[in-house]
Design a protein that fits this description.
CATH architecture of the largest domain: Up-down Bundle
Number of helices: 11
Order of helices and strands: HHHHHEEEEEEEEHHEEHHHH
Largest sheet: 4 strands, mixed
Distance between the termini: 57 Å
Radius of gyration: 22 Å
CATH class of the largest domain: Mainly Alpha
Helix content: 40-55%
Strand content: 5-15%
Shape: globular
Number of domains: 3
Length: about 400
């Protein structure tokens, strides 16, 4: 039997196994609103529920499947993890909330970390014991990471951190932060004076202030550093290498690099969901699906969604990517987040006056699901660099356009 055929049989068995596991282990409705994204974890009950769920998924062997066994994984192929994630999405299983660890910090530590760092951090990321957050954006600099002002000054065996970060997802619950700070104020190029830290959030002098989102949740915080001391061995790489390491981290966040541990980070809301909604919403006594203009618009969105799925498959065929290497991976975040923003916005427009209602209103279509989904989508078009920044990246690194 060929290796390829053997793996196909193995994956077929895994699909049946994980489908049965989900059937018997998917948690019941907890009685409170569960997050649609990992950026909505703003209360202890939600945190406890999701932490228990992620630990259960990992204990069953369905998280970190492609990570080495010695760090808590299973040493299998990414195809195994992709299959499990797909089945979890189909079943609408809860999200695995520790996304900054699972998708960004973890792959970075696997690729660039020391053996000490891998042994110290990776298993805690998988089993949900150690929550991670990201300290990149600052109040006055947004996506302009090169201009950050948070300072890290060496003082013997410590670094002293002063400054602040904003939009820190789960900052008030995190044990560790991937932190970008300035270690050299007078560097010839602003990017050269930055360093990258795996910083403990328990250090004295670090505090957080929750930020309420449009949706009402408190998934973000502003994080303040006031003479906060962290051990010098928290630095990743050498002083001045922070920009390069941060850019690799953003490649994971933007979906251009592999290595994530898996798990669902965002509830999958697809065109089939929109079609179901359009079938039950009526206008002038008729289902919207009978309206010709609505049908035409829905077909256009269906075509675009299918194109996104086919583009993901195209990524695995080098000959189809030869003309503009990395163009698909670098543009993936921009294409997908903007599509789902428009799709969710259209879903609201189909509801007429009910489109202005929200979660908690008895007259809201699907309990305000689409309104909440639309507002949540803004975090995906901003996080990891705004859509405008993503367009610049494509222009400069794919099309070769000048920065000015």
């Amino acid at each position: 039997m060929s290796i390829e055929l053997e793996q196909q049989n193995e994956l077929k068995e895994l699909r049946a196994e994980v489908t049965d596991w989900i059937k018997h282990n998917k948690p019941a409705d907890p009685g409170f609103l569960l997050p649609q994204t990992f950026m909505e974890v703003g209360s202890e009950p939600v945190l406890d529920f999701l932490r228990e769920w992620q630990h259960k998924v990992w204990s069953a062997g369905y998280l970190g499947m492609a990570w080495p066994e010695k760090y808590g994984g299973r040493g299998l192929s990414p195809a195994h993890q992709n299959l499990v994630d797909a089945q979890m999405k189909l079943a609408r299983a809860p999200i695995c909330f520790n996304v900054i660890g699972l998708g960004w910090a973890g792959p970075l530590i696997l690729d660039k970390g020391t053996e000490y760092e891998r042994e110290k951090y990776l298993k805690g990321i998988l089993n949900a014991e150690d929550i991670w957050c990201q300290g990149f954006s600052e109040p006055n600099h947004g996506s302009d990471l090169g201009s950050i002002q948070t300072r890290a000054e060496r003082d013997g065996s410590d670094y002293i951190i002063n400054g602040s970060k904003i939009w820190t997802t789960m900052g008030n619950y995190a044990k560790y932060m991937i932190l970008l700070a300035r270690t050299e104020a007078q560097a010839e190029r602003k990017y050269n004076g930055l360093s990258f830290f795996l910083a403990p959030m328990s250090a004295e002098g670090i505090s957080t202030q929750p930020i309420q989102k449009l949706t009402g949740e408190y998934g973000f915080t502003e994080t303040f550093f006031t003479d906060a001391r962290i051990p010098a061995d928290c630095i990743m790489g050498e002083e001045g290498q922070g920009w390069r390491i941060a850019m690799q981290t953003l490649q994971y966040e933007r979906g251009a690099e592999a290595g994530a541990a898996g798990g669902i980070s965002i509830l999958s809301i697809v065109m089939n969901d929109l079609l179901k909604m359009a079938a039950k919403v009526e206008r002038e006594g008729q289902p919207l699906l009978k309206d010709h203009v609505t049908r035409d618009n829905l077909v256009k969105l269906l075509i675009e969604e299918k194109a996104l799925h086919l583009t993901d498959k195209r990524l695995g065929i080098p000959a189809l990517c030869a003309d503009y290497p990395n163009s698909l991976s670098l543009s993936g975040k921009l294409r997908s987040t903007e599509f789902y923003r428009r799709m969710r916005q259209y879903a609201q427009s189909l509801q007429g006056t009910q489109g202005s209602l929200y979660v908690g209103d008895d007259q809201a279509v699907d309990g305000g699901f689409w309104q909440r989904a639309y507002l949540n989508n803004f975090s995906t078009t901003i996080g990891g660099g705004t859509s405008q920044v993503q367009a610049n990246i494509v222009g400069e690194h794919v099309l070769g356009l000048p920065k000015d």
